[in-house]
Amino acid sequence: MIGFAACECLIYNARSLKDKRAVLQRVLTRIRQRYNVSVAEIDHQEAWQRAKIGLVAIASSRRAAERELERALALLDSFPELERAATVFEWL
């Protein structure tokens, strides 16, 4: 089972692309280190205060993939400099 989550995020304190990328690098690295998911910025690369983050988990069951994605999203929500605005899930 393949689970995909696309998250629209806002980074309010980013005043430049450099600020935005510093926040995203820290967040994405932490998610990669802790959970068995692939994660990347997939849209809004040139916007200062917006980002779209894609997370993918592959597991033998939907429940296992969903659990891994939920844990990664909980970690994403724990960063105060980033706010998750909307999330869309897809299953293959």
Automatic annotation (TrEMBL):
Locate the transmembrane regions by residue number. none
What protein name applies here? Answer: DUF503 domain-containing protein
Gene source species: Geobacillus icigianus
